[in-house]
Design goal:
CATH class: Alpha Beta
Helix content: 25-40%
CATH topology: Rossmann fold
Number of strands: 5
Number of domains: 1
CATH architecture: 3-Layer(aba) Sandwich
Radius of gyration: 14 Å
Structural class: alpha/beta
CATH superfamily: Nucleoside phosphorylase domain
Order of helices and strands: HEEEEHEH
Shape: globular
Number of helices: 3
Largest sheet: 5 strands, mixed
Length: 138
């Protein structure tokens, strides 16, 4: 529609860095949201839990994240709570076009540092369940 643009960018930095400049340069974007999955080194965090990694928001916990180029399964290599494959690139590219206050990165915990990519139905259902919590930001 004329209010929202949904971009399914795929997994990884390269996908994110390839598509975002085109979106920002060809559409009038006032606010941007990255919603995706992340692994957690903290097994006390329930799978499906939602976090914001770059803002303090009511009702959504904030935590730290590291972006890697390949799935990570060794928690000793991770100094943050979460790990994903595109948040850093999303933030870096988006900051060239928007103010930090208009950029949001939300992550749903999908695994406990497994090299296996979660199946699409799990990802779809986890993100769908999280919408009610983060849609107020839009």
């Amino acid at each position: 529609n004329e209010t929202y643009i949904l971009v399914v960018g795929g997994i990884g930095r390269n996908q994110t860095e390839a598509i975002l400049p085109f979106i920002y340069e060809n559409f009038e974007i006032n606010k941007t949201i990255n919603i995706g999955i992340a692994g957690s080194k903290d097994k006390s965090i329930k799978l499906g839990s939602l976090f914001c990694v770059n803002h303090v928001l009511n009702g959504i916990p904030r935590t730290t994240i590291t972006t890697v180029d390949a799935p990570l399964d060794d928690s000793s290599l991770l100094e943050t709570t979460l790990v994903d494959m595109e948040a850093d690139s999303f933030l870096r590219v988006s900051k060239k076009y928007l103010s930090q206050k208009d950029i949001y990165v939300f992550k749903v915990v999908s695994d406990y540092l497994s090299k296996n990519i979660p199946d699409k139905s799990f990802v779809y259902n986890s993100i769908k369940k999280s919408i009610a919590k983060w849609e107020i930001v839009i």
